[in-house]
Automatic annotation (TrEMBL):
Protein name as annotated: RDD domain-containing protein
GO-annotated cellular components: plasma membrane
Topology in the lipid bilayer: Multi-pass membrane protein
Subcellular location: Cell membrane
Transmembrane domains' residue ranges: 20-42, 49-66, 100-118
Biological source species: Halorubrum distributum JCM 13561
Keywords: Cell membrane, Membrane, Transmembrane, Transmembrane helix
InterPro entries: Pra-immunoreactive, RDD
Domain RDD: residue ranges: 11-130
Residue stretches in coiled coil: none
Domain of life: Archaea
Amino acid sequence: MGNTPYARSQLASVTARGGAWLVDMVASLAAAAVVSLAVGAVSGGLADLAFLLVAVGWYVVSEAVWGHTPGKWVVGIEVVDTDGEEISASAAVVRNVTKILGGASLLLILAGVVFIADDLDNQRLGDRFADTLVVRV
């Protein structure tokens, strides 16, 4: 086990994280599409930007404010720092920027799963950069 205040049994599994990702992906894309359509009705040039801001903000804002996304809440997991404390806004940004980069292809998504499965603290690359853990609540 790594140097964290959590036992391995308290860390979120790849399956739980995948379920949360699926819920969040569907919900965030739906919300981003609605906002994008509304903004596009007023200014077509800003529709793509609105879509991106909502899709990314879904993860960053909810993790920075509540420690979990709606999908993580549904499956009963949350993000904490490696000391077990609430994550900072900057940690939420760091872990989610890497998620955006890592979600660009199926190969990179699979690489993220391998990182989680291969790490003693179930951390993907973004968690390692941000010093965060995803744990069961």
